[in-house]
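Same chain as my last thread, 143 residues:
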Amino acid sequence: MKIAPWVLVIVPVVALLGILGAGGCVRASGRAEGTYFVAKVKPTLEYYCMECHNSKSASKFSHLNLETGKLAMSTGLHKPVILPRKPDDSLLYVVLRLGHAEALAMPPAPDKISGEQLASVRQWILDGAFWPEGPEGHLKSPR
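reply #2:
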């Protein structure tokens, strides 16, 4: 029995894609489905950001509205503030990690985001900044 040459190429490629795909699913555990955002990032953004960056107050605070992912990616004077897979270039992450001595530091005062919370925001952006739609992705003001 003679095997067509294309089979010798296709079979290893398909097998490799299957292996890489499975590894990718395990690595992104919870991140692509939004569970990471809901558990780690959403509470941080609600507590530290939503008092100012909501539909009622955004015009006074850089026109940035963080109520939904769509708004977060399309509003603000320096949009987009979130660059998926590039936390160090994402203004959201940059201003959160600044110290209070810096004029652009967020939140402005008195609380500062914890190292663990900051690491979660960084990891979320690094993983692609998946922000679910619907109620689970809608941020509310802390009041």
